């Protein structure tokens, strides 16, 4: 919430956020490794890894810190890229896809997972199949976004949510 209130056009704020993000991520990852290594002799490798990892399952304080630092860094890098290449067709397509985030979130469940269920391909797939399916779905999402935004200012789910909220 705080980041949304900052003037992200200000280069000084951006540099500070990027520095904060990178520093937080690196220090958290180093702390995670250090604590895990230190506690292995006392509680075992499995318990130490469980308590001090930065993975999303099960999320803990170190995960939240590392993810927050990563998000700050990625946000600033994305802002830089979109400003530097604002007229690039690929960047414009990705921006339009980001403007339909809620629609794509819902569609990945109903269309993406629904398709896998219909094809009986939900479990035990090869890495190649997963990669190809995810890539095809990603490309479909981008194409849908670009075509949709030519006619409408909001995505279908975003439009429904706006109508319900007002």
Automatic annotation (TrEMBL):
Keywords: Membrane, Transmembrane, Transmembrane helix. Coiled coil: none annotated. Residues 59-165 form the DUF418 domain. The chain crosses the membrane at residues 17-40, 60-81, 102-120, 126-148. The keyword Zinc-finger does not apply. InterPro entries: Bact_Transport_Assoc, DUF418. PANTHER family: HYPOTHETICAL MEMBRANE SPANNING PROTEIN (PTHR30590:SF3), INNER MEMBRANE PROTEIN (PTHR30590). This is DUF418 domain-containing protein. The lineage of its organism: Bacteria, Bacillati, Bacillota, Bacilli, Bacillales.
């Amino acid at each position: 919430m705080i980041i949304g209130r900052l003037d992200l056009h200000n280069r000084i704020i951006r540099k500070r956020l990027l520095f904060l993000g990178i520093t937080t991520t690196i220090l958290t990852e180093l702390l995670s490794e250090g604590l895990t290594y230190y506690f292995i002799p006392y509680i075992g490798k499995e318990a130490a890894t469980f308590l001090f990892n930065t993975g999303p399952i099960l999320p803990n304080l170190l995960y939240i810190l590392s993810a927050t630092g990563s998000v700050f860094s990625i946000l600033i890098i994305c802002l830089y890229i979109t400003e530097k290449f604002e007229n690039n067709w690929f960047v414009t397509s990705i921006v339009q896809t980001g403007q339909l985030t809620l629609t794509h979130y819902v569609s990945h469940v109903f269309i993406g997972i629904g398709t896998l269920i219909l094809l009986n391909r939900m479990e035990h797939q090869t890495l190649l199949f997963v990669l190809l399916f995810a890539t095809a779905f990603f490309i479909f999402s981008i194409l849908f976004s670009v075509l949709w935004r030519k006619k409408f200012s909001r995505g279908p789910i975003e439009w429904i949510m706006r109508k319900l909220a007002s």
